[in-house]
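Customer escalation, tier 2.

The customer says the design service returned an amino acid string that "doesn't look like it belongs to this structure." They asked us to rerun it and document both sides in this ticket. The original structure tokens are below, unchanged.
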């Protein structure tokens, strides 16, 4: 994957619509907030459950919370760190016990928060990962490598942020595309299992329900290979209804 310079990032960003820019900016900020919480929670040994909200995680961490990431734009340093240094990127962090807010550059996170050097290094590494995802999206936009999400929209479990990203004409990362296909595979298996189960006799259903999960999956797979089951797309779903304009945004 191409690694973009700041100038290249800025040039491609300027080619995005205002809607695309706002979406990408929000996506990056949320990604960095999530990385921050992930690193701190791992350090404290706090398990992250799938249904937990940011507020619930912050309450359990009971320390530093990343509230906002400000970007002054390419070539600009309109913000100030607590140390006085001019900043393009300003990280606004809040200490939940002291009830105090700090406005810092990435290099001063360790000095002002007293977070260990190892932890700060992990946080910076996480931030870099988010920036690489941004570069991947922008590089794909530059080369017009868009993902046709329309043919998957009958699957209700697709993450809303992924669907919206594709609908407004932003490419998906390889990781996001992998997520789409993984969810489709799970959807296919559910549909196939339901269709096969409906063909069982009452005796077969009773026997099947007593099997352990791994054995149920084995039985279903054997039926799939024997019968050559295809997955049916809902009759009321028409991919051609999901058209997109010249900028690959869905109409």
């Amino acid at each position: 994957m191409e690694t973009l310079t700041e100038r290249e990032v800025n040039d491609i960003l300027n080619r995005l619509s205002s809607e695309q820019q706002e979406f990408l900016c929000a996506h990056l900020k949320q990604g960095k907030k999530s990385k921050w919480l992930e690193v701190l929670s791992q350090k404290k040994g706090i398990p992250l459950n799938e249904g937990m909200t940011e507020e619930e995680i912050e309450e359990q961490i009971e320390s530093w919370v990343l509230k906002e990431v400000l970007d002054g734009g390419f070539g600009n340093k309109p913000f100030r760190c607590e140390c006085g240094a001019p900043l393009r990127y300003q990280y606004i962090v809040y200490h939940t016990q002291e009830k105090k807010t700090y406005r810092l550059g990435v290099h001063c996170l360790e000095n002002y928060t007293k977070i260990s050097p190892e932890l700060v290094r992990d946080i910076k590494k996480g931030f870099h990962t988010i920036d690489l995802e941004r570069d991947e999206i922008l590089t794909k936009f530059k080369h017009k490598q868009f993902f046709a999400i329309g043919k998957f929209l009958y699957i209700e479990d697709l993450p809303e942020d992924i669907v919206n990203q594709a609908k407004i004409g932003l490419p998906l990362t390889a990781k996001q595309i992998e997520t789409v296909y993984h969810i489709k595979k799970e959807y296919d298996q559910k549909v196939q299992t339901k269709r096969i189960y409906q063909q069982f006799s009452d005796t077969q259903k009773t026997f099947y329900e007593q099997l352990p999960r791994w054995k149920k999956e084995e039985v279903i797979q054997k039926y799939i290979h024997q019968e050559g089951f295809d997955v049916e797309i809902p009759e009321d779903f028409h991919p051609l209804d999901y058209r997109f304009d010249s900028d690959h945004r869905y109409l």
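Tier 2 assessment: The sequence is consistent with the input. Residues 6-145 form one domain. Residues 203 and 209 are 10 Å apart (CA to CA). Sent an explanation to the customer and offered a walkthrough call.
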